[in-house]
Amino acid sequence: MATTADRKEYPISMRLPESDVAMIDRAATLRGRSRTDFVRDAAVRAAEEVVMENRLIRMSPEGFAEFIDVLSRPAAPVSEMVDLAQRPAPWEPGYVAKR
User: Fold this and answer.
1) 25, 38, 67, 93: least buried by Cβ within 10 Å?
2) For the packed helices 35-53 and 18-31, what is the interaxial angle rounded to 10 degrees?
3) pLDDT by residue, tens only, the chain of 99 residues
C-alpha cells in the first residue's frame, strides 16, 4: 500500500504583464538568481514586513514606564552624525571626497 508524503512545496501561479516579467527577470539576473528564487524572496520579505508592522508588543506596566522615561529624555548628539550633517553633499560646492 502506498503512503502519501506530506507536501513540502506549494505552487503559486500568477498572471503578469510582460513588462513586469521583464523587470523581474532583469533584477533577478543582476542578483544572479532565478526568477522563482527572486520572486519568492521578495514575496517572503514583503510578507515578513507586514507581519512585523502589525505585531503586538506587550510589556509590563513597569517596563512601559521605563520605556516612556527613556523616550522622554533629551536626545544626546552623536558627534559622527553632526559631522555628517554639516558636510557638503557630493553635488554641492565645497564637497571633498574623504578617503
Assistant:
1) 93
2) 90
3) 556 667 788 999 999 999 999 999 999 999 999 999 999 999 999 999 999 999 898 999 999 999 999 999 999 999 999 999 988 988 988 888 876
**Structural domain count of the chain:** 1
CA distance 24 to 35: 7
Residue 63 domain-assigned (yes or no): yes
CB-based contact 67:59 (threshold 8 Å): yes
This prediction has a pTM of 0.55
Q: What is the rounded CA–CA span in Å between residue 73 and residue 67?
A: 10
d(CA 95, CA 81): 17
Q: What's 87's DSSP letter?
A: S
